[in-house]
Amino acid sequence: MRILKRLLLIILACILIAAGIGAVALKLKDTEEYTLDEGHRKQAPGSFIALSDGVTHYELAGPDSAKLIVLVHGFSVPFYIWDSTFNYLVKQGYRVLRYDEFGRGYSDRPDKAYTAAFLRKQLLELLDSLLIQQVEALAGLSFGGPVTTDFIAHYPDRVNKLILVDPAYPDAGPAIFAYAEIVQEYLMALNPEKMIAGQLTDLKYPERFPAWGDQYKVQMQFKGFRRALVSTRNHYAEPDSVRAKYAKVETLHKPVLLIWGREDLTVPLRKVLSVDFFPVDDAGHLPQMEKAALVNEKINTFLKNLIP
Question: Does the predicted model carry a pTM greater than 0.90?
């Protein structure tokens, strides 16, 4: 009995030591120092609006009477990933809206499951709050592909056209799903450098965007960022559900433009829909950045109905 007690005490001591070491490591590495509040938001461009699940950061520009284009960003990089396209379309005379999805950028990080319905509701409430009933084109980049196709599948009458740029198209859930969310968050916290470096792999020529990593660091300082990413991975939707939304959109017979960087190492090039397909040479996962002039011109042509 004494041997068993000693063994249990040793095990308990080891657990406490490991927990202590883990806590110290987290303290040293954790980038999430601040709670996102009005003071921090003052440094951000754009506007803010309170929706039912929290404050959303957005930017809306262009003539009120012009056709509206909505730009939806990818998995973790906020709306600045659309800078080139946003500015170009505004100059072309369109009304353009972009926003940070919950958990990203300067939008709130609600402590909820980041499901497809949750992010769909954010976009719907944003449009309704801005009194926008009709969207000429909804554009989704990377993870924005599933978000936009899901929205159109549920509200087909509110969107006329769809633009997809290197859209996520999952074949299976990642192995990380096997770990508890708290473990996933902890592992992410221990290696923030990996998160930053991972953004550079989306580009074929990261050296041409020297500020890319520093831009990404800003949102990492606000509490709830990692939790939002982990929750999205775990709860957004099953791969079959995401693919089903693409299939649903195809049955709607709306004009769709599919743009893809030929050298995308993040999401391998594929023709996910029977649509106008525009592969971009010499570009990775973010052709709207690496080949901005070419991609923007193609988008403008598509919007003007000049594609046969």
Answer: no
